[in-house]
Design brief:
The chain has one domain. The protein is 47% helix and 17% strand. The protein has a seven-stranded mixed beta sheet. Helix 1 runs antiparallel to helix 2, helix 1 packs across helix 8 and helix 4 packs parallel to helix 6. The chain is globular, with a radius of gyration of 21 Å.
Amino acid sequence: MIFSLNEIEAKGKRAARGAGLSWGLAEEAGKAARWLEHYGMPGTKMLLDHLDRIDGICYDDLVPVSTDGVWYSRSDRLCPLICGAALCDRAGEIATGRTFSLGPTSFPSLLVPYLADASKLARTPIGLSWLTVDITLEAGRVHIAGKAADFLVAYADSIHCRPARSTTNFLEPRPRGRQVDTQTCSRLAAFENRTYAPATEYSRLVGAGSEMVSQDSESQS
């Protein structure tokens, strides 16, 4: 199935909410999935894989805590959605030269869209690195060096966010819709369905009444 970028964002947002994130964090998660898909990366699948991992984990166990200048979580891995929002809030600190180090983090590539926004807010290039991956974000644009497999890893033990030098050879976006396979559609729907209120006896009666009124009107016409 072909989804537009708007659909990817909307479904990602609702899926994140269905996994237990606040509407604010869910909205940013949907935007992150859209941003990655816009550049031809599997943002939707990575978001779903991460939502599967944090499903049922208490929010307090996901928020970053600092130990000796390194962020960790009370669970086994940091959440890139929560950390991404926190780093974006610290764009001004990064612009003044501060470096942030993260401990074990799930799907580090989900951090990239947030730091792209941070680079626009701070009006300065921002660097992000893990394993062989070295990323420069400047005015919302992205340059990526390193192994593709390392960019798509399910987790990284150590991540560094820092000021960076200006660069060139930015990736070109792919503005068209994205192909989403049947399994991914089903996984999105499973999370989305949690956000819908279950039908009540009253809502069923109202629905039936509306249908009856409609049928009666048609019979009288």
